[in-house]
Amino acid sequence: MKAGCAFALMLVCGFAQANATDDYLAGLKALEQGRREDGLYLLEQAAVAGSVAAQLKFGELTPGQPGERWLRAAVRKGSLPAAEALAQRYYDDRSYRRAAQCWLAAAKRGSSSAQAHLGALQVVGLGLPRDRLQAFAWMNLAASAGDPEVIALRDNLASQLDAVQLAQGEALSRELPQKQDYLPGEPPCGE
Predict the structure, then answer these.
(1) d(CA 147, CA 109)
(2) Span of the secretion signal (predicted)?
């Protein structure tokens, strides 16, 4: 009896996930065809059914708190792009510490874009203390992905450091993702 219930539950969950995928793909197609209302409806249905991709897309397309709620849901399920989108939303809303918290979560998982954003925040002191050495370390780490703009920013920062600071910054960039703590007083990204 228990085996039969478990099989039925797996079957229902499989159908629900298949429906979420179908709704997600149909929603994307509707958006492509210019049927925004239909597309958003289908994406929301897929998001409600648990599709992380739908939660991300619907969250990106939905303004305000409803969109933020869906981005947070996707972050809690491990979506790196959702963490970056949520960080950008917080940054655009001038919630710089919350943005830094989400970019930090993404940077710790290897996102060079998030690493570059953290470096930029530390250059100007938005949401994080102004710290050219740590800014250089984040930019140095991000530059390893090969983005010419990030490389230019890193090189500009390097020109402002003396030889000892440059060596410290290079050493710091190797350990920064593991060493950097999350920001005290801020909820974890996605919460």
Answers:
(1) 18
(2) 1-18
